[in-house]
Amino acid sequence: MSSDAGKFILNTCAIEVDGEKYTFDLNHILDLHYIEDITKSNIVVAVTLTDSQSSIISDLYGMEPILFSWSTGEVTVELPMVVYDIQDRHVYGKSTKGTLYCISSDAVNNAGMKISRRFGSGGGEHIHTMVTKLINETLSSTKGIVFDKSQTKFSFISPFWDPFTIISWLCWRAIPEPGEGGDTTSAGFLFWETPTHYHFKAMDTLVGQDSKKTIRVGFSSDEYDPDFIDIDNLTFLGSSDVFRGLNLGSFRSTNMTLDLKDFTYREIPYDVNKYYDGMKKLNPGAKLPAFYDIFKDNVEEGTALGPTRIMSKVIDTAMYTEGKYTQDLTQQLSQSMIRNQFFFNQSASFTYKGEQDLQCGDVVEVETYAGKELTKDIIQSGRYIVGKIYRSYSTNSEKLLTRVTIYRDSQGAEEDE
Q1: 370 SS3 class
Q2: Cα-based angle 270, 271, 274 (whole degrees, multiple of 5)
Q3: Cα–Cα distance, 298 to 262 (Å, whole number)
Q4: pLDDT values of the chain reduced to their tens digit, one per residue, 417 residues
Q5: How far is CA 306 from CA 188, 293, 296, 365, in A?
Q6: How many other C-beta atoms can be found within 10 angstroms of the C-beta atom of residue 369?
Q7: For residue 268, what are the β-bridge partners?
Q8: Torsion angle of C-alpha atoms 409, 232, 33, 198, degrees rounded to 10
Q9: Alpha-carbon dihedral angle through residues 280, 199, 171, 162, given to the nearest 10 degrees
Q10: Which residue among 65, 101, 401, 412 has the highest number of C-beta atoms inside a 10 angstrom radius?
């Protein structure tokens, strides 16, 4: 990889205090940390500053506007944020030092809003329309939102929730429109922030994307190629924990619901063997491990293991109007929970120094090799989705260090080569 790839260039670090702007350069930054998470509604930046000139760090109390802008190669990140916490403040000699924790002004505005009103009055409103209105109108955000359309029309009363909590709650109830996630209609969306946009995307759509980059494990090249990231090792953080899966009901479970509207009782069974083949996956050719067969119904022998978890839920659909799919609300909740479990089923992480063009929600192709002959490890290779990005800069390095956590819902398969 080129020696200049990923070189950190600070364009702007400026804090506004009482109407006056204070600018810091690389000599004042001891370290900088950037955190982006596909399960979180906002980016967090932590920066440790030292100052021997203005001593302005001593005057910070929080809520000061701060602007970050940095570049690596052709990629520039610009983040207008707000200081929400100051920690580890020190005074030594004529210098002051402190660590500032920063979030977007949208996150601050969100924390100050507690909404109690009906959404989707009448016949209900499409969930993606509610979400875009919450971002663009309620929060008056200047950051755009990228979204998949939902065929779910919904009406509900918010019990003093903030906008981000409402969106998170709606994610479990949204079903993508046909064509957004292929032929599937699995319930389940995710909502997160990147430097340029908010994202409200169906899990089925995310897994159907083309791969943005190929991650080559144990491979190195002197030439930089924007289509590849070469890493020394890939650390697998978790895979199918069978015992945990039994406790969670990931293989076979029953969801029992009681609706206070008319005291209707329902039992919704779940069998992974019936659900998995029809689920849209990152690696479409993947098959379940052989031990999953013990959870199948054996008609001839009359045997099956499970359910291993019985869940009970009390709901009141009287608070909803007859929006599309609200009649099957309990089944949607069960389905989205299962989809979510599969989406984050296996995880791995890798670290590299290079460009910062990867974002949460991108799909990457991982290539791993094993054995003396260095044959491709089909099971560990395959398509993953980027779920967490942690970037850091410190004074002992010129480059931005990036640690990426990736997830997948299925093992690699021959068909995915």
Answers
A1: strand
A2: 120
A3: 36
A4: 455 667 899 999 999 999 999 999 999 999 999 999 999 999 999 999 998 777 788 888 999 999 999 999 889 999 999 999 999 988 887 788 999 999 999 999 999 999 999 998 777 899 999 999 999 999 999 999 999 999 888 888 899 999 999 999 999 888 888 765 445 567 889 999 999 999 999 999 999 999 999 999 987 776 778 889 999 999 988 666 677 777 877 778 888 888 887 888 888 887 887 777 778 888 888 887 777 777 776 545 555 666 888 888 787 766 655 455 445 555 566 666 777 778 888 899 999 988 898 999 999 999 998 777 777 888 889 999 999 999 999 988 888 999 999 999 887 766 544
A5: 25, 12, 9, 35
A6: 15
A7: 255
A8: -30
A9: 170
A10: 412
- Whole-prediction pTM value? 0.87
Q: What is the CA 271 to chain-centroid distance, rounded?
A: 26
**How close are the terminal C-alpha atoms of the chain, in Å?**
24
Q: Position 144: which residue type?
A: G
Given a contact cutoff of 8 angstroms between Cβ atoms, the answer to whether 369 and 269 are in contact is no
